[in-house]
Structures are given as C-alpha cells and as structure tokens.
Amino acid sequence: MKLVTSLVPLAAISLSTAFIIPDDHITQQIAFQSQNEAESQTFNERLQGSVENAWSGVEETFTDAVAYTENALDNAFSAAIKAGKKAQSTWECHKSMTKFDMDGWIDSGLSVLDDIEIFHGNTQKPKKPHHPPHRTPNKTVYELIAGSKHTTKLAKLINEYPDLIETLNGTAANYTVFAPIDKAFEKLPKGHKPSKELIKKVLSYHFSPNFYPAGRLLVTHTLPSAFGEDALGGEPQRLRLGFGIFTGLNVNFYSRVVAINIFGTNGVIHGIDSLLLPPPPAHKIIELFPGQFSTLQLGLLKTGLDEAIAHGPHVGGTLFAPSNLAFQKLGPKVNAFLFSKYGEKYLKALLKYHIVANQTLYSDAFYKEKDAKSNVMTEVDIDDVPKGLIHVDLPTLLDDKSLSIDIGRYGGLISIKINGFSTVSLQDGLAKDGVIQVVNTVLIPPKTLGGRQYAGEELSVEDLKNRLDVYVEEL
C-alpha cells in the first residue's frame, strides 16, 4: 500500500462519551460503581472527583521514579501518590487545574527513545530527559510486581496461576504490563469472588507480549493484549490508549496511568489506578449510551438489525455508528420518512451500509477475515514516527457495497475518512466482537455503481429514495 503523508488532529475525547465498559458476564461478578451514583454526578463533578489522583510537578517526581533501582516499582508508585496529593492540595487552594506540564512528562518518559519525534505542531525533537543515569535492571516484571508494596493484591492473584508466573518471568517476549495498584481493588464490591477462569482472562488483559515504553505509548492508539477474544476469532482483544488534559495518559478511557517506565529484564511496567475489564458486545455498547446513540438504537430495533448484530454469524466486525447529531444533520423531513412505516425498508438499507462483518478495522490495526492473515497496519518503530496514508475497502451488509476508508497518520495523530468525506469523530470504541467507529454524518451510498459519493449536501426524501431503491428489501 502506498504511503502518503496526511495530517489531521485528533478530536478531543471526553469522559462523558467514553464507552469502554465491562462485559455483561464480568459485570455480573464485578462492579465499579452503582448506576445511580454515576447518574447523579455531573461531568464536572466526576472530573473534580478524580482530581485527587491528578499529577502536578510531574517532571520532578517521574524523573526520580523511572531510575533503575532495586525498588524501582515502589519508588514509581510512591512518586505518583506524592504527586497526586500535591495536585489535590493545588485544586483545593485554587479551585482550578494547574497547567499540566506535558512536555516535561513526555521528556521523562522518553528515556529509551531519544531519537523518536513526538508531533507538537512541528517536527522538532523533544528535549532529552534530565534524570540520573540508569542502572541495568536485574528483576523480571513478575519479580518487580511480587516485590512491591503497592501491587500486593495483583501479585496475590497472579500467584494463583503458575503459567502466568512462568510467562511474566520468561524471556519469550519483552512484555508490557499495566499493573493495577492496590487502591484499584478497593473499587470492587466485597464478598463475591469471580471464577478463576474469569480472573485469568482479566489478568491476561492487563499485559501485552509487545514492548511499549512510555514514548511508544504516546504515539499508539491501540495495542494487543495477551487475552485472545473468541468473538474476534481468537485475535488479541486490544487496549486503547488516550491522553487527556485532566487525566493524563489513560487506558480504555477510564484507567489512569500513575507510574511509567518501570523496566525489568523482560519488559516494562506502567502503574494504573483502575482494573481493565474486557468490553461488552457492540450492540450492548450502543444500547447503554442513549445520549449518543438513541436514534441509531431505535433504527436497529425497528429494522431487526439489532438481532443480526447480536446473534448473527460473524467473527469480529466494524460498526460505523452515526451519533444522534449525525442523524439530526439529515433534517426533520428525512428522519420522519426513515422512521415511518413506509420508510422502514429504506432505513434498514441505510443502516446496513454502516455495518462491516468479519473485518475489524481499528485506527492502527486490521483484523481481516479468518482466512486472511491479520495485519497490524502501522506498528510503531522505536527509531521512527509512523506516518502516511493507508487505504482499505470494507464490504458492508448492503449487498457487499464497500466503504472506502483512508487512514492518515503522523505519529499519535490519526484521521479516518470514509468515502472521502465523512470523518470518524471518536475512534476505536473497543467491543467484545469488534470495534465501533463513531461518525459525524450518516453514511449515504452513491446513486449508482461507481457514482458520485455523498458529500454532505442537503438531501430530499426523493433523493434519498433514489439512492437506496436498488438495495431496498420488501418487508
């Protein structure tokens, strides 16, 4: 595939639209908070509630934390806790967040990636970090976890699985471990203990067989975990990386990275403040976020496509999910027609054009159909910044009518365009059975094969019918 440089900034991701949540099977045994408590809090209240763990003075604390010492993991977590307390005090005094020292944090995290370029609107290299000389690590990632006072609960769980101990002590790969600190387990309900099989799946979801130090994390959108998901044909369920002004580096939107770059002889550990739970199926995610997807959910129910997505024969898939705002852009007349009894067959054809079965396209990875080799499209080389354009044609449920996908990338900045016009506004919503890419416009097929693609112009009901007549199924 030909690579062509393309730069488009990422859309800001808010916690209020995050949809990485536990699988149904998991939530029956594990719960973080009651639904009533979550609904009673405003977005600002949730932000303020998380500030007590925010970072301030990051460069100073993490400069000390990433040094290779006998107790490197304890030092890193202690530094994060100290920084969190300082941030809480600052918030209480000023009632506002202090400026997050992003450059300093990035500098402190690039100790082994001095040559990598991070995009800040230009191509200048970041300054080299100012920290003490590193010593060669002499403990495996398992030994670091088992010996730390901050990961005693994680170590206790791992110790129940000899094969996991062997893996994390082994040299078959350079592993990346996202280690929940002990406080993360305080969010779990007391009493009921999940099955050993479930616990092992969750533990496997916390590490990757690939090496992701901090600098590589910052230019990565998703990475493969060690948990093979049956609904993805055994392919690795992925972890989503993000960076927020208030949360800093986070995994799956909700779990904040509180310590970085604790190196062992066989990998690297990053400390996190919440457990990572595998996500639910795509149809359940749509159902659970009516504030974003109530129109789409209604359309799937009216047309019966919700059952097709939930129970149809597919291994993985990509759902291009129009938000409520995307439907509003069609105008009241078109919406009234689509959701009428007469327009239902047109609505079904339209929604089929948003569903891709058996091919899971993330912003930086592609799980093809089972008879084709999986392809991680643009893995990060530690000596270079990935950049360019990748083109993929994805067949939809609409008589195999394909979507033309262009993914432009420069380092951690990724843009996904569909049919040359529509933009993915929220990328990589991880699902048990694929991925959700949220789109800011409803995708409209061309009038004829090879015809001009829809480019956002105002559509009349007759124009929409002309585009869909050839695909309409009589109900």
UniProtKB/TrEMBL annotation:
Glycoprotein as UniProt keyword: no
Signal peptide (from-to): 1-18
Name listed for the protein in its UniProt record: FAS1-containing protein
Keyword ATP-binding included in the entry's annotation: no
Keywords attached to this entry: Signal
PANTHER family in alphabetical order: FAS1 DOMAIN-CONTAINING PROTEIN YLR001C (PTHR10900:SF125), PERIOSTIN-RELATED (PTHR10900)
InterPro entries tied to this protein: Adhesion/Biosynth-related (IPR050904), FAS1_dom_sf (IPR036378), FAS1_domain (IPR000782)
Residue ranges of domain FAS1 in the record: 138-276, 269-443
Source organism (scientific name): Venustampulla echinocandica
